[in-house]
Amino acid sequence: MENCQTAADICSLLNCRELHWDILLNLERAQPTHFRTYPMKFVNEEIIDHLPKPRVSGENQISENHLKTEYHYAGVSDRVKALFADLVVLGIFMFIIAKVFSSMENVPDSARIIAFIFVFFLYDPIFTSLFGGTIGHFMNGIRVKRENNQNKNVLFPLAIIRFAAKSFLGILSLVTISNNEKSKAIHDMLVGSVVIYKKK
Question: Which of 26, 63, 82, 113: disulfide with 136, CB 3.0–4.6 Å?
Fold first, then answer.
């Protein structure tokens, strides 16, 4: 049978309205090349795009948005800029807290300890787990997400481990970024996180 070169050709030969789309999808998975071989025919990307979209459910359901999503991973420069931005933010926090405490009499030591713990130990984990990044991350257009599901934030316990490793290793934790496909630092590898650019 002759080759199909246009959408009109394949529609006339296969009757698009009754074509079982799951067969074509299975074929597409089996042969991920520019030209998909359909029995005795060549179906290209243009023809597939013109075929009617099916309604599939369960295991056969394919999310077009998921397939089209392409993540770009943050490099060293943007991470370092986010770090310095967060240092400025922490300085502002400390200034505000000091001003508030100085205007009060008999500030309990427990309040000072809580403020100290929040600023230096919990700021990064709380913001990372709740909002997907610190203020420094947001200022530089990057987010911290789970590697296995980049639509979800890192869990709070893992965010604490991530911050502890980052604080302990310092700039050394970034040496692995240029050596792996997803630009993961050492503290990312420990908890299964990635740093990506915000989707536009």
Answer: 82
Q: Where are the domains of the chain?
A: 7-68, 76-197
Rounded to the nearest 5°, which phi and psi values hold at 156? Answer: -55, -45
Helix (H) or strand (E) holding 56: none
Q: What SS3 state is found at 5?
A: coil
| In the chain, beta strands by DSSP E | 35-38, 41-44, 142-146, 193-197
Q: Between the CA of residue 71 and those of 91, 124, 199, what are the distances in Å?
A: 32, 23, 8
Instruction: Write out the two tokens for 31.
Output: 């042969």
d(CA 57, CA 63): 10
CB-CB neighbours of 20 under 10 Å: 10
Contact predicate 148/136, CB 8 Å: no
Q: How many helices (H) and strands (E) does the chain have?
A: 10, 4
Sign of CA dihedral 22, 27, 32, 37: negative
The arithmetic mean of pLDDT across residues 186-197, rounded, is 97
Phi and psi angles of residue 176, each rounded to the nearest 5 degrees, phi first:
-90, -5
* Residue 51, φ and ψ in degrees, nearest 5: -75, 150
- Summarize pLDDT for 166-190 with one digit per residue, the tens: 999 999 999 999 999 999 999 999 9
Q: pLDDT tens across 71-94, in order? A: 799 999 999 999 999 999 999 999
